[in-house]
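Quick review question:
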């Protein structure tokens, strides 16, 4: 096999990163932008010791699961990698991705059910974050997602996976920023003011919180005037914030956010509970699918326990803790982000939850000094999963069930393997489609001590 050689292949399945997988005499070939059962002619572009990469040079026989993407930008925008695949079959692909991770990484011989489908597969994404730049000659402002495997912005004027109002707000910013002296940011030169626009959009009352991420250390008069113009232009905008990020980094937001006009939060309702979501608050981007997860966890606890003591770890604004408080005797919440801790306290008061105890600090460190035992521990860590210390302490503190919520099948499989080695039993794993038309998948694992 040599670079540039062409082969006819049949795509067997998709990898955990959405790449098509095929084989030549047992040697793995990864191909972009393909669907299982596609028959394609490919050209080899890169060869490694155990696998190679290839690009399609000709579609010979398309898979029966292919469909026309509903977004005209799908081929050039990197946000919806699977939109050209029938949605029902996307669920099967994600089931396979989860099952492969459990078997190959976790060593778990488990049958994974189909993911619970998202209630909405268009206009479902209620958090958007667009990088901003401007053209070299005309200085035209560009806003959109990056092309796959690049930092070249696709200038998106219509995105069907987010609320329509977000397109209108972004267009207003794109068309009016320069008239207020607001330039687009350049990664190469670290010049320009506006780096990102982040919008949190409520599925409950349709209000929007707009955050301008700027390459500044303090608010300028031009920026205040621009924020005021955005606020005045849309009755759907409940607040405009500014986030200061002058560091040479790929991290989207800095640590300092200031509300310039209006409210600093939007409201979202999950299982009849109201949550306040700020510019830097973690909350699921797909509220309707998130509600399915909260309902699943709450129903499991209610069916299997009578007023248990519940620990909500990596709690964020204590969304899980507040949602299950109705069926719990007591909830203890731990979160290291102190802004989220304060917001969790406001949310618990807003919902008249009086059986929750909210703590700020690192989950692993909290576990290590905690003496109480818990009937149920809910783990909802970031994408990198839990540390071994956290798993050890969760195992020590839990007397019955760990509910592990994960957005990464690979780290979930790794952590389940470790818990199984400690003597735990994996009762079930249920996927949920939180990120429609992408290869990402959320899972809820029930683990018995």
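Suggested answer, residue by residue:
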């Amino acid at each position: 096999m040599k670079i540039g050689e062409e082969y006819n292949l049949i795509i067997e399945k998709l990898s955990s990163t959405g790449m098509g997988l095929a084989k030549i005499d047992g040697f793995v070939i990864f191909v972009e932008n393909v669907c299982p059962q596609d028959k394609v002619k490919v050209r080899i572009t890169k060869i490694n010791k155990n696998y190679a990469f290839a690009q399609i040079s000709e579609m010979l026989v398309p898979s029966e699961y292919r469909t026309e993407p509903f977004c005209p930008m799908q081929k050039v925008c990197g946000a919806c990698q699977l939109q050209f695949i029938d949605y029902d079959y996307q669920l099967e692909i994600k089931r396979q991705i989860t099952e492969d991770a459990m078997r190959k990484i976790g060593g778990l011989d488990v049958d994974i059910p189909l993911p619970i489908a998202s209630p909405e597969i268009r206009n479902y994404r209620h958090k958007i974050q667009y990088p901003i730049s401007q053209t070299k000659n005309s200085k035209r402002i560009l806003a959109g997602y990056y092309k796959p495997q690049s930092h070249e912005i696709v200038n998106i004027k219509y995105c069907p996976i987010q609320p329509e109002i977000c397109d209108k707000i972004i267009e207003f910013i794109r068309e009016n920023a320069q008239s207020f002296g607001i330039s687009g940011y350049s990664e190469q030169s670290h010049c320009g003011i506006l780096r990102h626009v982040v919008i949190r959009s409520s599925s409950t009352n349709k209000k929007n919180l707009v955050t301008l991420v700027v390459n500044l250390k303090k608010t300028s008069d031009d920026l205040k005037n621009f924020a005021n113009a955005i606020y005045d232009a849309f009755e759907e905008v409940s607040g405009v914030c500014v986030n200061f990020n002058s560091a040479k980094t790929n991290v989207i937001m800095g640590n300092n956010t200031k509300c310039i006009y209006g409210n600093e939060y939007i409201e979202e309702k999950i299982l009849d509970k109201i949550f306040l979501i700020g510019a830097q608050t973690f909350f699921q981007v797909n509220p309707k699918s998130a509600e399915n997860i909260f309902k699943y966890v709450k129903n499991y606890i209610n069916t299997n326990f009578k007023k248990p003591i519940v620990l909500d770890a990596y709690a964020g604004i204590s969304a899980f803790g507040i949602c299950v408080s109705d069926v719990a005797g007591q909830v203890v919440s731990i979160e290291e982000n102190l802004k989220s801790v304060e917001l969790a306290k406001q949310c618990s008061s807003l919902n008249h939850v009086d059986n929750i105890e909210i703590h700020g600090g690192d989950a692993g460190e909290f576990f290590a000094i905690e003496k109480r035992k818990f009937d149920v521990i809910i783990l909802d860590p970031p994408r990198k999963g839990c540390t071994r210390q956290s798993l050890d302490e969760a195992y020590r503190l839990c007397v019955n069930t760990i509910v592990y919520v994960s957005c990464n099948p690979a780290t979930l499989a790794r952590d389940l393997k470790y818990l199984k080695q400690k003597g735990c039993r994996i009762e079930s794993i249920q996927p949920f489609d939180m990120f429609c038309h992408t290869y990402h998948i959320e899972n809820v694992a029930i683990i018995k001590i």
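Why it works: Residues 11 and 22 are 5 Å apart (CA to CA). The domain at 127-270 is CATH 2.40.50.1070 (OB fold (Dihydrolipoamide Acetyltransferase, E2P)).
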